[in-house]
Amino acid sequence: MNCPNLSMSVDVWQVPAIVVVGIGMGKLDLSARASCWIDRAEVLVGGRRQLDEFGEHRGEKIILGSPLDHTLEKIDQVSQSRRTLVLASGDPLFFGIGRRLGEVLGKERLLVLPNVTAMQYLFARLAEPWDDVKIVSLHGRGKAMKPGDWLNLLLRHKKIGLYTDPQYTPARVARELLQLGVQDRVLVVGENLGQDDENIREIPLSEARGLDFSPLNIALIRPAENSSVSTALAGQNLTTFGMSEASFQHQAGLITKMEIRAIVLASLQLRPDLVLWDLGAASGSVSIEAARIVPLRKVVAVERNQDRYQDLVENLARFGCAEIESICADASDVLERLPDPDRVFIGGAGGDLVAILSRAAEKLRDGGRIVQTVVTLDTLEAVRQFWREKSFDVTVAQVQINRSAPILNTIRLEALNPVFIVTASRSV
To answer: Which pTM does this prediction carry?
Structure first.
């Protein structure tokens, strides 16, 4: 890619190049170099707050407002003949306007001068390092942020920095975390950073949920000092992979054993943004652990037995898995209305085995995989007969698990029922 604008000097501003300047926390953060570019501009574009800081500037001023596409079109037009500079807060390429300018107008037209970001400033004011922080922008997310997303973030990151917006406020964040049962985190909220009325405070979630904050704010989720671990993230729940049967509410024997589940999950070969069906889900151990391992786009757990379905619902609430849709019905009655899957796990099918396999195979996306656990030889033969004439690669693994059991002053091995794991994969 050619970048002729990067070699420009302030004295040779070649239109239609566009200069994008981050002004940091305010005008005082500008470097001498950035100030020279601003002085040379014939058109200034920015938010109302940024433009107000340059009221004395003689150039035309364009407010960067909604709808954004109209403003970008105007920037494109005026920059063809006049030196146009876009003002941004912080670093324009860090959750800023720089991304959209590059996508719409072309990166080769941009000269970007970054500055200190609000998140950098907040951690500087706290005198804390921030190289281990996960940064998330909630701008415009609306209903797109799901409870399961929060749980995944909390499991993977000790500190989470948040760029909020007027709809997704720190109070809303606190409410959503509390609904998940999270009690071992606090919010640090920075309001009006860099201004005379700057306010930085650490607030318990229970207090933050009911507060109003300045519209100009960012937030940090971090562990509370000397707090008890929250219900949703406590003990065994912190385990991402290899959860014991005791972690789940289930009827005796009606759960995929931990060792078998580990092999099933490996056989599914999960990746982010896939759709997973868990048919004959029982306690939901497979779909719950799958959702904790990788951020899946959609998980549907289907269980027809009412008692086992109640266990499933209990486990979803216990682990905060609101992203998993649970259905109490015969799988063969609901598969038609489910989104096409990338992965299917079949833990039980009863007398509907052939119908379920047929529909799953038809709806499976290219490159998809169906994994099924089988206990009896009759069912194994029926599964083999089904796949025999299908254009799928099929493998069968027999797994025998022996667990230690105490006997006198030593241990013996106690065998669990052998399980067959059938994996059928569709070529791309």
So the answer is: 0.65
Please choose, from the candidates 178, 158, 175, the residue with its C-alpha nearest in 3D space to the C-alpha of residue 220: 158
Point out which residues pair with 420 in neighbouring strands: 374, 398
- Which residue has 């019905």 as its token pair? 329
Which of 182, 201, 204 is CA-nearest to residue 193? 201
Q: Taking the domain 120-223, which CATH number applies?
A: 3.30.950.10
Nearest alpha-carbon partner for 344 in 370, 363, 372, 373: 370
Decide if pLDDT at 56 tops 90: yes
Closest CA to 350 of 303, 385, 392, 312: 303
At residue 234, the pLDDT reads 45
- CA dist 92 and 378 (Å) reads 63
Q: What is the CATH number of domain 4-116?
A: 3.40.1010.10
The fraction of the chain above a pLDDT of 90, given in percent, is: 72
DSSP annotation string for 110-121: EEEE----HHHH
pLDDT grade, residue 38 (50/70/90)?
A: very high
| The pLDDT of residue 300 | 96
Question: Strand 217-223 to strand 185-191: parallel, antiparallel, or no bridges (unpaired)?
Answer: antiparallel
399 close to 360: Cβ distance less than 8 angstroms: no
Mean pLDDT of 393-414: 95
Six-digit token pair at 301?
Answer: 């757990």
Domain borders along the chain are 4-116, 120-223, 239-425
Burial of 228 (0-12, 13-18, 19+ CB in 10 A): exposed
Helix axes 353-363, 377-387, angle to 10 degrees: 40
For residue 23, how far is the Cα from the chain centroid? 30
CA distance 270 to 286: 12
Q: Which CATH architecture has domain 239-425?
A: 3-Layer(aba) Sandwich (3.40)
Tell me the C-alpha distance between 244 and 259, whole Å: 9
Is pLDDT larger for residue 7 or for residue 302?
302
Q: Which of 322, 273, 328, 281 is nearest to 301 (CA)?
A: 281
